[in-house]
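Lecture notes, part 5. Sequence design as translation. It can be helpful to think of inverse folding as translation between two languages: the language of shapes and the language of residues. The source text, in structure tokens, appears below.
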């Protein structure tokens, strides 16, 4: 399953946010991998709009697995000040998941099987 989500990074913290993601802690990387996060990427627009993409068999289960790790609690606490609109939630709890409405490979597979 593919998932895309949005968050808003504070515009005055963009450079520091980018820098933090150049050196994500090795234990955080391992926890994401071990929790089922695959092909995970973040894309940042100049005004702070953050678009995330992740593939996982079950997003809720992957999020719950991460929530049970100490490293995630530490990472989320350090990253929370970078974001707006969280209303007291951690960043990994406050993102808006978008509905996928098109995927090229899925449609190609369907059209090839219909032929």
């Amino acid at each position: 399953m593919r998932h895309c989500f949005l968050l808003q990074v504070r515009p005055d913290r963009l450079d520091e946010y980018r820098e933090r993601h150049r050196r994500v802690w090795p234990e955080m990387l391992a926890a994401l991998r071990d929790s089922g996060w695959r092909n995970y990427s973040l894309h940042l627009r100049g005004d702070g709009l953050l678009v995330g993409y992740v593939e996982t068999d079950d997003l809720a289960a992957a999020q719950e697995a991460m929530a049970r790790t100490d490293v995630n609690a530490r990472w989320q606490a350090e990253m929370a000040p970078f974001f707006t609109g969280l209303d007291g939630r951690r960043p990994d709890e406050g993102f808006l998941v978008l509905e996928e409405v098109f995927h090229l490979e899925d449609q190609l597979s369907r059209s090839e099987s219909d032929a």
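The translated text above is only one of many valid answers, since several sequences can fold into similar shapes. The beta strands are 2-9, 38-44, 49-55, 83-84, 96-98.
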